[in-house]
Structure formats: structure tokens, C-alpha cells
Amino acid sequence: MMAGLYEKDDKITTYINGSRRLSNIFWALAISFGGLGFFLTGLSSYVKTNLLLFSDVNEVLFIPQGIVLLFYGTAGIVLGVFLCLTVWWDIGFGYNEYNKSQQKISIYRRGFPNQNRDVALTFLFEETKSIKVKVKDGLNPKRQLLLCLKDNREIPLTGTDNPAPLSQIEGEAVDLAKYLNIYIETE
């Protein structure tokens, strides 16, 4: 979801929310602590000592329950750490900048840490063909703005979080199309 259009001088900037959201923090912590609980329960069944303060695991046999709990606990911890790091690094954060005086569009997104962590794309106004509004309703709704280029590439302009209201997406599409002097497509 685009956090809104911000116009200053001859520039329009839209900011894209990354993964640093309250819901992602909740799920990262819940999965981490749940995985840790499973892991400690499985380990307790192996060492025959209660490693959890709030439960009694003396009745859990190591084979087969303890091994399964260790496996699911390890998987939960790994997934939880991955989600915590994704939130920490704020994967997906970025912005789109439309500069009328320089006649160029700059798109920036943050990815996973490596030598190519940051994705930065630059296009000239003359390379653009249209703004596409992609709407898919149903069980997994999707509302997305795409920048269509003359060489048939489609560059996403919106994030992947909760779908924005249709009126907001349409309004942003109209504003961008007017600013870039191009037309709007729908899918």
C-alpha cells in the first residue's frame, strides 16, 4: 500500500511500507516463543528434567513425542528468527520519486543484506507508456499499481501489504497519470 503522495517543488514522492509492522512483529515473536517452548519440551523429555517452569513434561516420552517436539521446535525457532530479522531489516521498505524537472522516475526498495541489498531503478519519463491498475478480488484480494514501460516491462509501484481501498488506488493512479502525462490501463 502506498502511504500517500507527497508533492514538493517539482517532485512527487510515495513511500512504501516495509515489513516493520505491528502484525509482523507479533507473529515473529509468537512463532519464536512457540518454537522455543516446543524445543524445550522435547529437550526436557530427553534429559528427564523439567526445563519449562510452567508445565510438567514427565509424561512425555522422548520417542516418538520428544523427537517430534524437538523437530517442530527447531523449525519454529528458525522460522521465528527469520521473521524477526525480516522485521529488523525492514525488508520491502522504499519509495518512488517522480521528478518533473529532471524528467525521471526513481524507484528504491530495500532487500535482504548482501552485496545487492538495495534495488534502485531509474527511468526517464519518455520510457513510460502507462499506469496500470491491477485489481483482483476474492479470497486473496490484490490491488496494485504498475508502471508500464514502452518495452513492455511492468514495474510495481505499490507494496504487498493489505490491499488499499479501491478509491485510494484509483486516485493515486489518476494523480500519477496526470503528472507523468500518460494514460491509465486496468486489468
Describe this structure in words.
- The protein is of the alpha+beta class.
- The protein has two domains: 2-18 and 91-186, PH-domain like, CATH 2.30.29.30; 23-89, no CATH class.
- The protein contains three helices and nine strands, in the order ββααββββββαβ.
- It has helices at residues 22-47, 62-89, 166-180, and strands spanning 2-8, 11-16, 94-99, 104-110, 118-124, 128-136, 142-149, 154-156, 183-186.
- A five-stranded antiparallel beta sheet has the order 1-2-3-4-5, with helices on one face.
- α1 (22-47) runs antiparallel to α2 (62-89).
- The longest helix has 28 residues, at 62-89.
- The two termini are 18 Å apart.
- 19% of the residues are buried.
- The model has no long low-confidence stretch (mean pLDDT 89).
Condensed summary:
This protein has 187 residues and is α+β, with helices and mostly antiparallel strands. The chain is 37% helix and 30% strand.
